[in-house]
């Protein structure tokens, strides 16, 4: 790994363990061009790849074809208004109303380590190296520092941009994306993730077409609908084969990620803050820090990309006490009681939970102010002692006495029109004067760009946390931003609101985890609308979706696990019929699916069937047996229900390849068919492994194998034997037909 500048060749070369990224300095103009990104290469002179000598685009600034040149040159950070007519990364508005910028090379610096991004979440690491290239527009004085960091133990590259007004008068930044990449291949497919409430991060793949394609959010958060991620895949890429470029924005607000295929079949991919609703005033000397993008390149398909992101995020993004620690198995009362609870009800749940091995009670929405339903009281963060008689401390002490930790729900960013807070401060909600702001779930968003608002909300939350032994917070956010107006911002800074809002959320969460370093924070937004790497910097886990149905979760978790480590996915076993889709699935299957995440329960344990309740201790055993492997291992996707509409399979392999866990879910049974063949991945071909099935009824492992005389549909009796890793990966194993729909099993694979 290393970053070098080759003076003679005028090439910046960033080498990770397996990839190279090359930037060419085109001396004649001072432009920097993108020369190469992909598998590691040896040559250092790559300027020929920028095509500067290719007719008819002659390499002279004064030549008659400057625009033709700019319109095809692979610019490393394309600017607006000078003749590169493809999508650009940056534009301004000057005092005279002009929008163009032409950024030329000024200097570079190579640092050991990785500087933090002021006010923003970002990857970190001592074992990193950073290249900073400074560019300048001579007319406006606007400067841009392009940051590129690489890590000793990762193939990812972190890019970001800092813009500075080094001119004499204020300018408005009207667009500033974080990264752009120009590539030649014609046959890329674009992988994005789309969704809705209760249906987040479904994977979509389409051929890249001429013109624009992409994803975006102007909802003030990363959103249920799109995800701040782009994957460019060579045609036909699978989990194990094909080239993949990943672009993941470490940001939780409005974003745009787009791909543009141009007239020469070249592809430009870019990602950053959405320019819509964005305009940032930069006074002389002021700087703007754009968020970070994590680039990855894999030549071994999507699986390799997933593992690169997982390792990077586990090692270099997630922080705090719970970074590598087992998370307590929690029981959350939301689906159990909704708003209808009191301390007696919660204690009854806690009592049974403790008896059955659950480790933490989380009190969800409804414990504060006059919050009897979702129409009121957000902002009134005072315990409702009519509901919780004896107060919060009394309840928490009793829960603790049962041997359980205690967690609590907040929605700190919101204000209900029917709340004391709103009656006192009606101007604290984001709104446009004289325009009636729209409601969503009957609530407004607080104008957190105002310091006094942040102060008050933080103090209210802190007072609750200080009042009892609270060890977990679920930080929710249940509506999107609209009617954008802040009383605190002057007219020419209203375009700063959305980004300032995100910065404010980051500031609040940073303050929270600094003040409560032992707190386990779980972010949430109407389920998974703010599941993004930005939030992961503050909370090691994020609620994945309000949809807890085991089958719906297969696709949601598949999309999420494509980029995020399983240790970050909030996943619970809930009651049936499922509250979102009405589906009835076996209790054990709900457990297997939740095991792929943080694991917990979201049901009334006092009311579920005896049979289900009795399975909880076995599931608790299952969690403790396998969770650390799931949380820290390498993830391999073997089959996708979203693709085959029949079954789902994935496995986790420990770093030493001595142990693995296969989860197999047979969604729909079919009559008269062969057993399903699954080819394993990630094992050591030369090692021998023994396979065991986890028996949920006993909590024991029983050997898994094949018997010649097993009857169809019957459970296959075991035959003790071992298999070489190469056999398991090439020839595969046969998964017994499971009787019924929505069935599943866990296979534990251990090297002998
Ligand atoms: C959101 C969350 C749920 C629950 C409710 C409470 O929808 O995603 O898990 O906390 O809010 O109102």
Summary, kept brief:
By secondary structure, the chain is of the alpha+beta class. Helix content is 19%, strand content 30%.
Description:
The protein has 752 residues and is an alpha+beta fold. Helix content is 19%, strand content 30%. The strands form 7 sheets. Strands 6, 7, 8, 9, 11, 12, 14, 15, 19 and 20 form a 10-stranded antiparallel sheet that branches. A hairpin with a 5-residue loop joins strand 33 (647-653) and strand 34. Helix 10 (550-561) runs parallel beside helix 11 (587-594). The two termini are 35 Å apart. Mean pLDDT is 95; it is low at 710-718. It binds alpha-D-galactopyranose (GLA). Alpha-D-galactopyranose binds at residues 334, 364-365, 374, 409, 476, 478, 524, 526-527, 543, 546.
Number of strands: 40
Shape: globular
Low-pLDDT residue spans = 710-718
Bound molecules: alpha-D-galactopyranose
> What gyration radius follows from the Cα positions, in whole Å?
27 Å
Number of helices: 14
Oligomeric status: single chain
Distance from first to last alpha carbon:
35 Å
Helicity range: 10-25%
What class would the helix/strand composition place it in?
alpha+beta
**Major beta sheet summary:** 10 strands, antiparallel
What is the residue-mean pLDDT, rounded to a whole number? 95
Strand composition percent: 25-35%
């Amino acid at each position: 790994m290393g970053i070098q500048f080759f003076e003679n060749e005028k090439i910046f070369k960033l080498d990770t363990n397996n990839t190279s990224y090359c930037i060419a300095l085109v001396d004649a103009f001072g432009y920097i061009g993108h020369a190469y990104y992909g598998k590691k290469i040896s040559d250092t002179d790559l300027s020929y790849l920028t095509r500067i000598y290719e007719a008819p685009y002659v390499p002279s600034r004064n030549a008659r074809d400057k625009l033709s040149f700019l319109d095809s040159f692979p610019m490393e950070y394309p600017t607006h208004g000078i003749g590169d007519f493809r999508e650009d990364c940056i534009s301004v508005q000057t005092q005279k109303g002009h929008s163009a910028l032409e950024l030329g090379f000024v200097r570079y610096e190579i640092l050991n380590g990785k500087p933090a991004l002021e006010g923003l979440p970002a990857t970190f690491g001592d074992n990193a190296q950073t290249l900073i290239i400074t560019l300048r527009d001579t007319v406006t004085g606007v400067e841009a520092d392009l940051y590129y960091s690489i890590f000793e133990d990762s193939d990812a590259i972190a890019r970001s941009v800092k813009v500075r007004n080094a001119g004499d008068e204020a300018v408005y930044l009207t667009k500033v994306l974080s990264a752009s990449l120009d590539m030649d291949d014609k046959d890329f497919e674009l992988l994005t993730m789309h969704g809705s409430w209760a249906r987040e991060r479904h994977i979509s793949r389409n051929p890249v077409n001429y013109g624009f394609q992409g994803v975006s959010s102007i909802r003030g958060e990363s959103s249920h609908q799109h995800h701040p991620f782009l994957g460019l895949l060579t045609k036909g890429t699978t989990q194990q084969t094909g080239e993949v470029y990943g672009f993941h924005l470490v940001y939780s607000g409005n974003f745009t990620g787009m791909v543009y295929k141009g007239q020469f079949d070249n592809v430009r991919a870019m990602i950053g803050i959405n320019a819509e609703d964005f305009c940032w005033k930069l006074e002389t000397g002021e700087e703007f820090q754009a968020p970070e993008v994590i680039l990855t390149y894999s030549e071994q398909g999507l699986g390799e990309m997933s593992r690169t992101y997982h390792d990077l995020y586990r090692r270099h993004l997630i922080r705090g006490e719970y970074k590598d620690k087992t998370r307590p198995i929690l029981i959350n009362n939301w689906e159990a009681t909704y708003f209808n609870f009191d301390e007696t009800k919660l204690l009854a749940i806690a009592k049974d939970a403790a008896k059955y091995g659950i480790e933490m009670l989380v009190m969800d929405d409804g414990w504060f102010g006059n919050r009897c339903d979702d129409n009121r009281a957000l902002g009134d963060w005072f315990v409702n002692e009519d509901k919780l008689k004896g107060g919060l401390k009394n309840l928490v002490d009793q829960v603790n006495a049962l041997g359980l930790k205690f967690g609590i729900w907040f929605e700190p960013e919101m204000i209900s029109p029917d709340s004391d807070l709103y009656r006192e401060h009606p101007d604290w909600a984001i709104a446009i004067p004289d325009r009636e702001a729209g409601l969503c779930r009957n609530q407004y968003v607080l104008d957190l760009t105002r310091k006094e608002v942040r102060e008050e909300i933080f103090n209210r939350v802190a007072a609750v946390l200080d009042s009892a032994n609270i060890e977990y917070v679920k930080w929710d956010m249940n509506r999107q931003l609209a009617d954008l107006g802040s009383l605190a911002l002057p007219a020419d800074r209203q375009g700063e609101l959305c980004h300032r809002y995100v910065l404010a959320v980051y500031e609040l969460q940073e303050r929270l985890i600094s003040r409560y370093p032992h707190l386990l924070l779980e972010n949430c937004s109407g389920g998974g609308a703010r599941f993004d790497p930005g939030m992961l910097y503050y909370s090691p886990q994020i609620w994945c979706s309000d949809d807890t149905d085991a089958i719906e979760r297969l696709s949601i978790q598949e999309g999420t696990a494509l980029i995020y480590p399983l240790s970050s996915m909030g996943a619970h076993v809930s009651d049936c019929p499922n509250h979102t889709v009405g589906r009835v699935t076996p209790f054990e299957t709900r457990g297997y699916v939740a095991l792929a995440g943080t694991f917990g329960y979201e049901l009334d344990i006092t009311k579920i069937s005896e049979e289900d309740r009795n399975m909880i201790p076995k599931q608790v055993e299952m969690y403790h047996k396998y969770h650390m492997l799931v949380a820290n291992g390498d993830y391999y996707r073997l089959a996708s229900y979203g693709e085959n509409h029949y079954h789902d399979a994935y496995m986790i392999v420990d770093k030493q390849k001595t142990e693995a866990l296969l989860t197999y879910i047979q969604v729909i049974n079919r009559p008269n068919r062969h057993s399903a063949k699954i080819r394993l991945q990630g094992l050591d071909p030369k090692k021998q492994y023994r396979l065991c099935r986890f028996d949920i009824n006993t909590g024991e492992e029983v050997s898994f194998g094949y018997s010649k005389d097993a009857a169809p549909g019957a459970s296959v009796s075991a035959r003790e034997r071992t298999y070489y890793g190469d056999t398991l990966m090439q020839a595969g194993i046969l998964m017994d037909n499971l009787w019924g729909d929505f069935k599943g099993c866990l296979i534990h694979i251990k090297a002998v």
